[in-house]
Please model this.
Amino acid sequence: MGWKAAEKIIKHWKILRGDNVMIIRGKDKGETGIIKRVIRSQNRVIVEGKNLVKKHIKQGQGHEGGIFSIEAPLHVSNVQVLDPVTGYDSFNAKSHFVPPEISCFAHNPENNVGMQMGSD
Model:
């Protein structure tokens, strides 16, 4: 996992550290987690406890060697921000808040006859 700068860097980020996200692609698809770190130069994020890979570390002076599990970065396009209140994805959050009475008025113009402004 060498360092490589992204070809097209995202200018306006919607994902920040501490956000609750759902992974939408990869081996942890469908799981949720919290953003631990944002790497803007690579358009990647690290999700806490997800996308674990094995890292072989050689023993050296002052530290032990061995095989460790670390969190690998995910590309930003492979995660989706979740609404902190409902826990649903933020794109479909509006459909979860609309009561059935309001949604039937919006889709059926016949129901809006009595609801018009100024009608008595």
